[in-house]
Write a structure and sequence with these properties.
mainly alpha, Preprotein translocase SecY subunit, 3-stranded antiparallel sheet, two-stranded antiparallel sheet
Length: 421
Amino acid sequence: MKLVWTDTTLRKRVLFVLFALIIFRLLSAVPIPSVDAQELARFLSSNQFFGVLNIFSGGGLTNLSIIMLGVGPYITSSIIMQLLTIMVPALKKIYHEEGEAGRKRFTQYSRLLTVPLAAIQGFALLAILESQNILVNLTAFDRIINLLIVIAGSMLLMWIGELVSEFGIGNGVSLIIFAGIVAGLPTVVGEFIFKYIYPAFDPSILPTLIGFAVAGVLVIAAIVLVTEAERPIPVTYAKRVRGTKMYGGGSTYLPLRVNQAGVIPIIFALSILLFPQMIGTFLARFSNVIVAKISSFLLAFDQTSLLYGFFYFILVFLFTYFYTAVTFDPEALSTNLQKNGAFIPGIRPGVSTSEYISKVLTRITLLGATFLGFIAILPLIMQYATGITSLALGGTSVLIVVSVVLDLLKKVDSQISMREY
């Protein structure tokens, strides 16, 4: 840790991240015009859907700030673009075969797609808030200005996240979500203390508190264990004779992580699950009987329902496989091994090596995806057992925080290792 502050380049990266997060928190405190603060507080306290949406805004929805959409539109556009790589061969070629230049083009397409998505989400969200009398006395011009503000705020936050990824340490978008969750922690702790501990302590809640504390420690330990778990594949380098000297012949291993995707499947799944509730809340404004039935059906799909838990598990499971397939290419790895004179003992180089790596990766990802999906719905299971509905949201936050912290520590450790060498 001392090297983080003594090394000039590393210190600049860490300070850049801190500076970006400070700017982000300042932006989250700047509200859009015409907000009724009391109505907003009442609405947020009784609506779990907006609690989840608040995670993606990094806490910006609490004050209806200019960054109230957060990084949600950018995450959605990234999901759409990566899904299109499977269906559109030209995009797959850009992403996988054109190297760094192709990935920059791909990222640029994601940015461009973010603008219309932010406009759609911003319009729906502002309409919902106006229907709840949270935004008051708005003219047509005021509505247009508010929409432009939230679109610009989302794009600004996307830019800050990309700057953090490029000039800082870690994934900028994940760090923004992480910072929003951590920033809300003092408020949650304070509310809990004033409700159960001060001024009068409720002894009946003590067994529940102990149970939650033990379960929390076990869950965090399990997340760390699975996130850090690796399946080593032995690799041997062939011996080469040049003149009178012999080179190579060493042995090493390929570390395949059980959970290659990290926290990304959870963020992807949540961003998809937000849409039915947002559409249902928006349609609730209309008095048409058919529209009202559609709205009721979509609003029944909330964080406390069994249907929500089922789809949450399935989406996390599928996105873990999907993101692993997009980011990890066994064929490219097999080709690189063959070019460097390396092989897996007992496996022929080339296609056989690629198939073997794919087979191993599929098996260990099955374990990682199942575990991640189970951890995602575990708060729902505990919620049904205890009756405390806020657990669903708290569990998601714990998953994101632990995964982001592990990823950040790994990135810092790799930077330190580079400086030492």
